[in-house]
Amino acid sequence: MDSTPSPSPSSAFDLVSRALGRYFPRGGAAGDARPADARGDRNRRRRPPEDPATGRQEEILGAVNLDRDLIITRCNLDAPVFAGLEAVAGRPFVGLLPPGDVPTVTRRLRQVLETGEAHVARIQRLRRGDGSELVVSMSILPAAAPEEGLTVSLIAMARRLHLYAAETAIGTSLDIGETAQSLAESLLAWGDVAAVDLDFGVWTGEGVTGRSKGRIRLRRAALVPDRAWPEGYVTPGEDLPADASRLLAQAVLRDDAPQTIVIPDREAVERVLGSPRVVRALVPGDRSAGVACVPLVLDGTPPVVLGVAEVWRRADSPFRDSELLDLQELVARTAHHVDLARQHQREHTQVLALQRRLLPRTSGDTIEIASVYQPATPDSAGVGGDWVNSFPLPDGRTALVVGDVVGHGLGAAATMGQLSMEARALLSAGLAPDEVLEHLDETVSLLDDADSGLTVGYSALGSTCCIALYDPVSHRVTLSSAGHLPPVLVAPDGRAGPLELRTHPGLGAEFALREPFDVHTFSAPPGSLLALYTDGLVEDPAVSIDEGIGRLADVVSTVHPWDTLQRAARHVVSTLAPARQRDDVTLLLARMIGYRKGDTATWRLPARDDAPARARAQVSVLLRQWRTRDDTRDDVVLLISELVTNAVRFATGPITVRLIRSGHGLLCEVGDTGSGRPRLRRGGLLDDDGRGLHIAHRLTTRWGVRWTDTGKVVWAKVAR
Fold first, then answer.
1. By the 8 A CB rule, do 366 and 571 touch?
2. What are the pLDDT digits (tens) for 529-538?
3. Whole-angstrom Cα distance, residue 66 to residue 108?
4. Residue among 522, 657, 533, 661 at smallest CA distance from 592
């Protein structure tokens, strides 16, 4: 006898319960004891009708009554499909929900309580006591006066609705592990244990076509429910034994056609697997004896098997044909999600490799470099377009470059690589930072063109870049920025702050909005620290961008001159971005060292006919002081004489001669006020024009030209 008072005839609970009459007796509190005749009536009740073709159950209704505290007061969940739901009077309704759904559903329940407006047909999962889930269409109705509380009606479409909800949940992530986990959780509705094993090529993002069946290597991607498993059982992240991989591959690829196989009981499982070691690795326990193995197949000619989904259940509950059809349909619907995750993994790996290849690798004698690159979370749409680079220029200076390309994924990676390589080539050719940015600006505009763009639908307009050139002799930095955040400079005395740069719209702006790229020059004496970064390091929704840059300056100012720079860079990133961000985090730290004063010498000479003789005399004296070998001294004196002669003949104004001693050789520089570009031309042995450059070409390991605000500098390297 039901001890719960009868509800009001006008209540929503009563109306829903009356609709259940054709399926089971109405009324009854969940968990109440029932007399023998009531149990007999239940056994004699009419079973839900089944489709004769498929055996699938029709819609089944249930109802739960809640008080204002969302506690269950009455329920009518006697249909077989609701078996296992622990809906007991006196328990919170949210106890039936997956933990992740509790906040949202609670908010909906309270909203109906406050407004009196029903919330209808919400697709919702309910958790059974054994950990499996049931998908229902849930409607929340206000109780009729004078009663208070809510009536929650449930429509369980046991398989159709579950297939729809499962496919929706599985397609929400591009991470292979999360995709496999969602699939396994959905498969648990058909068994006691569900596992997903994927071909190793799927994990690495490689293709899985054209492989022989004997070489298939499976790795466990997901396993539910989550519990302590016996020793030897394969858990996520572990490879299946080679024998098990081969057996599963042969089983689902019989006659070269992917097929679902069912092994009905423990005896048959042990006979098929053969080895006790393989049985321990694959069979989840004594209770789960039967298994259905469903291949994850990509349609094609021939079809491609990405892996195998396994559903284990007790031998006393064999798989019906209708259930196997549902299993195959769910796996078939979601196989393409696994392949999308594989493609994303491949793209992610390629972009990450490109990005890490661009990171600075070594420091030089005149500057110390350290960098940190921290990619965004794996569920982002690929890796972003952040990049930093540093490289020595042939003339002894060092280039520091940081950029942030708009977007994520392959398009951003391709643009990032092209801009990085173009910037390096132009800087090595002697162009100034503002001139390089002008070229990059034009490149971004060209790449946005529909016909010549790198990736259809991708646009890099609005990308940013900052270029700094460090001169280790003058200890000065020349910097230009295209819309990038200002670098932070830490003086040797510890004072730190961002550089004051004019704002700029970035690369690829519309013609009417384009502005010239400013050149900012500042002193960076030995011991100075320069921090270049991307916005992922300083952006925080809780603070302004200026505050974020200020925090970066505060943290960088604590770096001690004796600290290892790489460790300091990691400390800065971990302090400002302790958790993974939605955007990539990139930091480049450069500690200025420069040349020692005794390793450089500079002379200014008037552009007169006696300038070459004076240059030869001064250079000769210096090289003797540096104890340079005689043959090297003769080569350098001749080289300087020819370069100064060219400067006198083809330029005006004073001439600057600079000599730099480094561990690898001597760097000779001759500057003048001319703007022409010296070119090495093919000519006869007795031709006077171009003789100086031919001599420079034969005596040096490398030579080139760079332009300055007042003219040009011809530089050449001579081995010591």
1. no
2. 999 999 889 9
3. 13
4. 522
